[in-house]
Amino acid sequence: MDKNLKNDLENIDILLEKVKNNAFDFLKNINDIVAFPESTNVYTPSELNKNGLGGENTLEEFMQRFYKGIVSSAGSKYFGFVTGGTTPAALMGDWLASTFDQNATGRDDSSAARIEEEAISLLKQLFGLPEIFSGTFVTGATMANFVGLAIGRQWVADELGIDISLEGIYSIPPIKIVSATPHSSILKALSMLGMGRKNMHSIPTIDGREAVDIEALENYLKQLNGEPCIVVANAGTVNTVDFDDLKQIGELKKKYKFFFHVDGAFGGFASCSTKYKKLVEGMEEADSITIDAHKWLNVPYDSAMQFTKHPKLQLQVFQNNAVYLGELSDKPDFVHLVPENSRRLRALPAWFTLKAYGQDGYEEIIERNCDLAQLLSEKIEKSKNFRLLSTTRLNVVCFTVNFGEHKVTLENIQQFLNLVNKDGRAFFTQTIYKGTPGIRAAISNWRTEEKDIEIAWEVLNKAYNIYVKTIIAID
Ligand SMILES: Cc1ncc(COP(=O)(O)O)c(C=O)c1O
Description:
Blueprint lengths: L2 H8 L1 H17 L25 H12 L22 H13 L11 H16 L6 E5 L2 H19 L4 H4 L9 E3 L4 H9 L7 E3 L11 H10 L5 E6 L11 H7 L5 E6 L24 E5 L11 E5 L2 H8 L28 H36 L3 E3 L7 E6 L8 H14 L5 E5 L2 E7 L7 H25 L1
Parallel strand pairs: 2-3, 2-4, 4-5, 5-6
Antiparallel strand pairs: 1-7, 6-7, 8-9, 9-11, 10-11
Helix pairs in contact: 4-12, 5-12, 6-8, 6-11, 12-14, 13-14
The site of pyridoxal-5'-phosphate has 14 residues, from helix 6.
Keywords: Decarboxylase, Lyase, Pyridoxal phosphate
Cofactor: pyridoxal 5'-phosphate
Protein name: Pyridoxal-dependent decarboxylase
């Protein structure tokens, strides 16, 4: 055995203790760690060592060279994108998942599959999804959308009497796929599936909203004259967290032939709150559903769930037959259901956090985050410096900056956010909503409390006072 490997093996307890201390230090100070790095261009690339450094020296080098660039994206004031943190129990599960290093691919090779099945069952209870749904873990909502649309593609072809997994995409005419405000990952999935980004047909939204106009959707479906298609419904759009009326889309399914996919990457979590579950009424009518775990479940990257009522079609798409992988059974191994063959035990962090905090714990996180989004919205409504671009429905506040007569440009927003994020205490990301450049604050972290909103508000206003002078100078 290599001498460094041997030494590390003999001292694994000391090494892990050091790592634990570093990790604990990070967690203890997370509120003081910057949410945005000063610069990521300060690293001189290092060469591969001939002899290796051993674990302890490698940890030291890592801490010296890269640690200052590690940001508090898992902290309480990181409002960019839709970013969850990691609950203590999720971290426990994640550490063990790496330690055990199980290949969660077969049903009977270890207890890995039982853990995944149980985590999926707990999640179905959390989201109020009926038993008929099966589910699998994938790496993120983009992959969950990919799997859902792959099953949808298989369903449409099946309706035409073709097994597209065998015959290929060229064996049928282009599949019609429609949505009102799809997430960019839906278009990416269409590209990966050979269905083409350009083949997404856009259905109008209700006036002033991002939710689909049901009448326009019905008119589109009617003129297809029975041709099967895919409808992508959105349960939580990124800018305004708007929800398509899933119940009404479910009703349309009784009259028209379509595969009903719901992208509820973070909006799906509305279902675990008594206050907000109405927003996703009808989600159970879907053929497939995407929900992210590394967003509002607050487990570490990379983790999401894909639920479906069509496991047989899923099997047709993703089966990976080989003698060494064993026979296909009635309950196929996960290797036959998802894009990955070998898989990390990513169900374990989810299982830990669900067991540790239960239904009440998640309802509390969701509702607290939403209350805080309301608090920030109220501050914006009362402020002269900022203006809401939309009603705050759930956990995302979409707003812009007021510069008097000066019309805000995307460049202004970028420059302004640069100032805000450089402060280091809070982090926001840009957007454009209905033509107006703006800012999104997505509150999705279990740690976030009222004091964090107060600090973020101070950061925004401080940056405003600095930036407004630049704007005045421009005009
Ligand atoms: C509605 C929606 N769908 C899909 C995604 C893609 O998620 P991921 O980054 O986990 O692939 C996101 C990410 O923000 C999202 O908000």
